[in-house]
Amino acid sequence: MLVVADTSPLIALVNIGHTEVLATLFREIVVPPAVVAEISSPARSAVVRQFADAIPPWLRTQTPATLLALPRLHPGEVQALSLALEASADLLLIDERRAYREAQARGMAVVGTVGVLERAASQGLLDLHSAFESLKHSDFWISHRLLDRRLQLFRQGNGPSRR
Known about the structure:
By secondary structure, the protein is an alpha/beta fold.
């Protein structure tokens, strides 16, 4: 399974201490150079910079041959979308709403941080309530009500979903 990731899911999972689920769920994640640059930024938290300084073997960098013309998206999102499309990725991990919709419009399978956590919980890799609580207390912007609703749906057997 070829999985390409944007910056946001990596940062969110690093910040809440659950990057290990990526390797377990997907074995290998491919990221473009702009994503590596974004996680290496001095503006990132110390834990994210530590992750960037010692990139795990399951995270591989690949440069897209061409870039899509998507002026309303950030460089990491453009490179991740471009790479996922040209490599015929099985899945794209991305959170930003515009980028998510752009990927769906191009027929890509897409999942965000919440969906990754739900998949991990469905395989017994983590406690979803604890992961969502950690996410609420991180700098990841998401509605707490949405997380509560997703947890409720998950507990009712209606999760995980695609986002």
